[in-house]
Amino acid sequence: MAGEAGGDNFVIGVLGFIGKRALSMLDQIGTSMWLLMEAVTWVVRSMTHRKVRIGRRAIVSQMVRVGVRSVFIVGLVSGCVGFILALQMSPPLDDFGQKDKVANITGVAVLRELGPLIAAIVLTGFAGAAIAAEIGTMVVGEEIEALEAHALNPVRFLVVPRVIATVVSMTCLAVFSDWMAISAGYLVGVYALGIEGEVYIQNTLDQVEMVDFLTGIGKATVFGLLIGLISCMNGLRVTGGAAGVGNATTGTVVQSIVAIIIADLVFTGIFYSLGWV
Q1: What is the three-class DSSP state of 93?
Q2: Contact 155/35 with Cβ under 8 angstroms?
């Protein structure tokens, strides 16, 4: 009897844990959707009402902070991945006498998946956590309440510039990441693997298509939107002082990476069903 009771308690505990996590996830998804609708509403109002404006200086400032300062890290990581991919693909392809096909694999893999994905993960750690910590610190310091007391909407003045900045920056960084990874693969292929430069370039051009580039950029735009929304959401929901800011920062990185991977999976399934992969 005692064993059965212990087993029942264990099952109840597991189900309670799963239910709690599921409810928490639904709550976060709902909050993110509400935040997205609010941000879109303010953007539309800024286009249709002259008195409602979105601060351009704030957007540019966030783009510099989020995007420009991430260029070096994104370039470094993407270049290393391009090197690794070319070197890893060379031995198995060489066994079949197809070493020059390194260019084909590198081009497709980078444009469709690795370029946007690398840029998104780097941007999450570099900028997403910083946005959550900044807004969370403002919440702890009661600066959000001060904005509301002056009839200034926090979503309009804090969320919208950051979301726009992450979307635009992520899209541009994905293009830069693609270029860096493919260039690194070219350097390895030509100078380390002995593939002729003209052959490498021609193989890349023969393999990749515009749809490969566009699907990757489309993913990057959505990744940027997810990073911006999740970062701002966690920042606005901070409670518990400095410890809450730390939890929001950690949660932002974890949730953003999970959301990016799931979104990538969904997009890949859709593109596969449409015959775009």
Answers
A1: helix
A2: yes
The pTM of this model reads 0.90
Tracing tokens 């997403």 back to the chain, one arrives at 128
SS3 content of the chain, % helix, strand, coil (to 5): 90, 0, 10
User: How open is the CA angle 256-125-229, to the nearest 5 degrees?
Assistant: 40
Rounded to whole angstroms, the Cα distance separating 230 from 129 reads: 10
Do residues 232 and 35 touch, judged by C-beta distance below 8 A? yes
CA distances from 172 to 192, 231, 241 (A): 30, 19, 35
Query: Is 48 a member of any domain?
Result: no
Q: Tell me whether residue 39 is in a domain.
A: no
Assigned domain for 266 exists: yes
- CA–CA separation, 42 vs 34, rounded Å? 12
Give the pLDDT confidence of 83-113 residue by residue, as tens digits: 999 999 999 998 888 889 999 999 999 999 9
Instruction: Let me know if residue 235 belongs to a domain.
Output: yes
CB 88 within 8 A of CB 67: no
Length of the chain: 277
Full residue range of the structural domain in which residue 262 is found: 54-273
- The count of structural domains within the chain is 1
